[in-house]
Amino acid sequence: MNKTFTRLKYIFLGLFLLSSASVLAYHGLWVWPKQRCEDRGGAWAGKWMKCATVYPIETLTRRPPNTPPINGEAAAAPTTAPAAQPKK
């Protein structure tokens, strides 16, 4: 009976240490880097576990803000109101 209690004590101690190490590894590899990234204003890419910098589209295209797109770059917005829906 005494050996059984000793063995169970070691089993539960091992399970506790394993679960504690798992939680620490999860926080060290996922939670804390994500938190640091978002605090700096970045975007966390969880699939690759990387921090990305968010750039406005004006920075990438070197176009002044609120400038309409040039023909062929994007579809033009409709200038007329949509047709009225028939009543059912």
TrEMBL record:
The keyword Signal applies. Residues 1-25 form the signal peptide. Residues 62-88 are annotated as: Disordered. Residues 74-88 have a biased composition (Low complexity). Keywords: Signal. This is Uncharacterized protein.
